[in-house]
């Protein structure tokens, strides 16, 4: 067991299962998330700042399935909560911001870990 803390909220078993041994599929899937997630996070953040709850809810909804695909269930749940709170009209903006900050931190940590995993898989192609 290593001394480094475990990566929070990242379980790639589903990805590896559907990849069926294809490192190329894993690399492509990770690349897609690395491209989309930062953009979605930025859109959610801007929407929260602008108090555009409809857009924030819509973008959180779009990002949610990817979290499940990569076994990021805590992030997926936080995005679900953000989506619901935004759909309710953003009546609790501080709670929305806090949940988003938490989700963003976890997702960005996982994206950094996925870069390393992707690069390792690319090297074996």
Q: What would you say this structure looks like, in words?
A:
The relative contact order is 0.18. This protein is mostly helical and 125 residues long. The chain contains five helices and no strands. It has helices at residues 13-19, 23-49, 53-69, 73-87, 93-123. It starts with 12 loop residues before the first helix and ends with a helix.
**Largest sheet, described in full?**
none
**CATH C-level name:** Mainly Alpha
The structure class reads mainly alpha
Helix segment tally: 5
What does the overall shape look like?
A: elongated
Q: Give the CATH H-level superfamily.
A: HPT domain
Series of secondary-structure elements, N-terminal to C-terminal = HHHHH
Q: Which percent range fits the helix content?
A: over 70%
Overall pLDDT: 93
* Contiguous uncertain segments of 5+ residues: 1-5
Q: Got a strand count?
A: 0
Distance between the termini: 28 Å
What is the radius of gyration computed over CA atoms, rounded to a whole number of angstroms?
A: 15 Å
CATH architecture: Up-down Bundle
Instruction: Briefly note the CATH topology name.
Output: Four Helix Bundle (Hemerythrin (Met), subunit A)
Beta-strand residue percentage: under 5%
**How many separate domains?**
1
Keywords:
125 residues; mainly alpha; Four Helix Bundle (Hemerythrin (Met), subunit A); 5 helices; 78% helix; 0% strand; disordered N terminus
Reconstruct the topology from this structure:
Layout: H1 13-19, H2 23-49, H3 53-69, H4 73-87, H5 93-123
Helix pairs in contact: 2-3, 2-5, 3-4, 4-5
């Amino acid at each position: 067991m290593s001394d480094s803390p475990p990566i929070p909220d990242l379980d790639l078993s589903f990805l590896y299962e559907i990849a069926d041994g294809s490192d190329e599929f894993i690399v492509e899937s990770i690349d897609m998330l690395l491209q989309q997630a930062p953009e979605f996070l930025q859109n959610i953040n801007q929407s929260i700042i602008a108090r555009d709850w409809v857009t924030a809810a819509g973008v959180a909804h779009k990002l949610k399935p990817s979290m499940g695909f990569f076994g990021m269930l805590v992030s997926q749940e936080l995005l679900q909560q953000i989506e619901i709170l935004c759909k309710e009209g953003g009546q609790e903006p501080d709670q929305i911001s806090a949940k988003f900050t938490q989700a963003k931190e976890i997702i960005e940590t996982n994206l950094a870990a996925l870069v390393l995993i992707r690069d390792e898989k690319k090297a074996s192609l």
